[in-house]
Amino acid sequence: QVQPVESGGGLVQAGGSLRLSCVASVTMFSRYGMGWYRQAPGKQRELVAQLTAGGRRNYDDSVKGRFTISRDNGQKTVYLQMNRLEPEDTAVYYCNTDSKGWNWGQGTQVTVSS
What we know:
This protein is mainly β and 114 residues long. The chain has strands spanning 5-7, 10-13, 18-23, 34-39, 46-51, 57-59, 67-72, 77-82, 91-97, 108-113.
């Protein structure tokens, strides 16, 4: 089973930026629609950004205009560029397919201070 590896989280002040990365050792990576998810304390995991295999991007309203999802199929990596971060973005961020078909990785913690 595939287990992605996320990295790039950290502590940042409100208004700052972070770039998350996720590597998945899987064949035919380009065929998968990918998603970034986050889980804040006491809340359910939610999908915040999606990038289909065909290149269509969808974002949750809470991050639209601030976050950008992209991918490098040759590196089997998906990225999440997060700008103008807000304290409400504090969460553990995970990547998975957009149908949650893989095991969940460890995630990467993002903490935004006010």
